[in-house]
Input
Amino acid sequence: PFYKTMFGLSELEETIRSHFGLSQVVIVAGDSETSAQTKRELGRAGCQVLNKVMRPNDVVAVTGGTTTAQVSSQLVSNTPLKTNWFVPARGGLGESLDYQANTIASTMAKRTGAQYRLLHVPDHLGEEAFASIMQEPNIREIVAVIRSARIVIHGIGDAIVMARRRRLDGEIIDAMQAEGALAESFGFYFDRKGTVVHKMQTVGLRLEDIVNTEVVIGVAGGKSKGEAIAAVMRFGHNDVLVTDEAAALEILALI
Ligand code: BG6
Output
């Protein structure tokens, strides 16, 4: 496209990086929504970032999604990462098995010779069930590991797309929409300014854990996600954004 020949992707990376105060932005060419090849490259770029930031003894928390699945299926390490742990960032969020955080965390660990722990907690827990599950020693232990993560790698989605994918009640979706929800990440729903307008009560990372995580890496692309990505960047706790050209051009038009 015109923009690319005028400025190039590295200028686009720098413009987005400095606008949101990120430490790094990586943009792969193309649109991962329409090209499977671009989606794979997005995943591969995510792997490169992750490999660069990981240190011995790190706990890495990962979310689910088709994009982090692309990261997990391409992750490799020269030496086994025996002291590293991969854990799901949150409990079950109603994703199909292939795209659940548990699956992605275990794939990453198996491919790199690292350790993993899984979190088996269902969605939509009522107050009482939530409180009693949080008393379980096994659950408490894994939740403590998750909350100690130094690195979080997560996908970003459109709020309504994700709410439907998780089969949230129509009423909740309407209420969220009325509040301006347009982005979703970690089970949190954000409005345009990056304010959280709805949360799903699941076990795992809380908002305050994300705020305090040393390295937060977002991996998301596709033209239709531009606005959602910008909203999550405005939330302001990401360090790295890995995206594609199509989303980046949408983001550019918003800043
Ligand atoms: C979910 C994550 O599993 O995937 C979310 O919990 C993210 O953080 C979503 O918004 C994105 O999914 P995809 O398939 O578009 O990468």
Q: What stands out?
A: DSSP finds twelve helices and eleven strands in the chain. The chain has a mean pLDDT of 93. The pocket of 6-O-phosphono-beta-D-glucopyranose is lined by residues 63-67, 93, 95, 99, 154-157, 162, 184-186 (CB under 6 Å). The CA atoms of residues 66 and 99 lie 6 Å apart.
